[in-house]
Amino acid sequence: MRGKHVFVYCGLLACLVSCVRPKYIDEVASSEKNVENNSSQTTSLGQQKVSCLNTFSTSQLCMRWSWEVQPTSKQVGSFVFKVYRLNQWDQTAVEVDLSAMPEVVLWMPSMGHGSTPTKIERLDVGTYRVGNVFFIMPGAWEIRFQVKDESKAIVDGVNIAISI
Amino acid sequence: MRFLFSFFLFTGFVSHSWSAACCGGGGSVPTIITSDDRAQFAVSYGATQVVIDHVDSQGYWRRWGQHQQTQTLKIEGAHIVADRWQWGVSLPVMTRNYSDMQYSGLGDIASTLSYEYLPDWDYNPYRPRGVGFVQLNLPTGKSRAESEIGGLDSLGSGYWSLGLGTMLVKSWRDWDAFTMLEWHQSFEKNINRVSLKGVARPGAGHNIGVGAGYNWSIYRAGINLNYVQEAAVRLYAPESESELQGMERWASLSASFGYMYSEEWAWSLIYTDQTLIGDPVNTSLGQGITLQLQKRWPR
Fold first, then answer.
1. Which of B52, B148, B243 sits opposite A117 (nearest CB)?
2. Which residue has the higher pLDDT, B292 or B30?
């Protein structure tokens, strides 16, 4: 009987000295961070001035994106992104196509894995929809926009960090 | 009692208690006979539910609305090959479920060569029995870095690795205790994925285990604690920047109950929880239950 008590006390002591102290972040908390702030000024012609928040590494083209359907743990999402250059006179957006159809990869750097493959379609000049956007776990992710050449080498791209 | 303990200790580190709950990874269990038997064999079935989907590099725990589940069927055996030498092998088959997706296949096969460097022929009251081992991990399971779907089809560490370790076991009357230290080095591998073509360079990892148990009649109740750390994996791709998959760390606490219903056969039921102990990073945490059937052949 005494032995059983020692066993229980040892277990309790082990828990006291080494139990985890979890710092929880729940699913809902971070969704607001993914909405870009598109506040901008208006030109004399009534067009909106924009800034270049995200820049492709080679072409130096600008990119902005916005959720159409925000993904959840149970539902795939989609977003639209636009590629543009800044008009040199009034800093408005002039949409342009990328040199090739881009690919979009969802990547979780800390865990060294991606997610299910996305689907991409061109909607108009410099305007693309990315569907089948699904994150298999919450955390810090990157949305990687990549343009590849014929040999499948990445020749242009931009990475956007988001928190899910 | 001594015999009972040693019988249950065979593969006493539960199959899934060494692996991260999500996405494969982790080391495999050394299959070692710690009793005076000629051969032992075990088959186990374990089910794990991920309850914390991601613990990030800063130690923040994140839960998602859906969780992965894994089932592992594991066949393990060990046989004496010379007086103090033995050889063991473990063969896991895994199924991973997430939402409506399911992936099954062979996990990493592990082969262990062990040498009893500290025999306990005279049943010394203080000196433990010591077994040293070399373990080779065969990358028959896919690694996370090779997965095109976020590691859902990753069923093992996926790398060749070579490990060295030791296990010390001791029993006193109704009580038993053991400790295990293991260090391993994993080796680089070419990755040929749609989104990444290059080389993955994993590093070293280690496992530290301690456990104790109480034996009465034909039963044993035990508790095990395993602490696992895996070094960061660097991914080098010629056409893009190198990636760094962060260092992983987690601890598993297991409670087991064993029942020996004959001289040669025993059942064990093991509950494992990765959310109770330690300071996990870059991993998922799960809770699981395993049922194990063991058979022994005395010398």
1. B148
2. B292
pLDDT of residue B76: 93
The answer, for A73 touching chain B at a CB cutoff of 8 Å, is yes
Q: What are phi and psi of B191, to 5 degrees?
A: -110, 130
A5 touches chain B (CB under 8 A): no
The domain that contains B152 carries what CATH number?
2.40.160.40
Taking only the tens place, the pLDDT of each residue in B24-56 is: 554 556 788 888 889 999 999 999 999 999 998
CB contact under 8 A, B225 and A113: no
| Contact flag B214-A74 (C-beta cutoff 8 Å) | no
* Model confidence at B99: pLDDT above 90: no
Q: Do A24 and B63 touch (CB under 8 A)?
A: yes
Average pLDDT over residues B229-255: 85
Q: What is the pLDDT of residues A48-68, one digit of tens each?
A: 888 888 999 999 999 999 999
B292 vs B12: CA distance, rounded Å: 10
B192 touches chain A (CB under 8 A): no
Domain that holds residue B45: 2-298
* A111 contacts in chain B (CB < 8 Å): 23, 54, 144, 151, 245-246, 282
B72: closest CA of chain A, how far (Å): 21
ipTM of the complex: 0.70
Nearest C-alpha of chain A: how many angstroms from B283?
A: 7
CA dist A133 and B61 (Å) reads: 23
Cβ neighbour number for residue A62 with a 10 Å cutoff: 23
Question: Are A100 and A147 spatial neighbours (Cβ–Cβ below 8 Å)?
Answer: yes
How many domains are there within chain B?
A: 1
Nearest to B145 among A14, A112, A137 (CB): A112
CA distances (Å), B130 to each of B33, B119, B173, B206, in order? 11, 7, 19, 19
| Cβ contact A113:A137 at 8 Å | no
More confident residue, B148 or B81: B81
Q: What is the mean pLDDT of residues B92-106?
A: 91
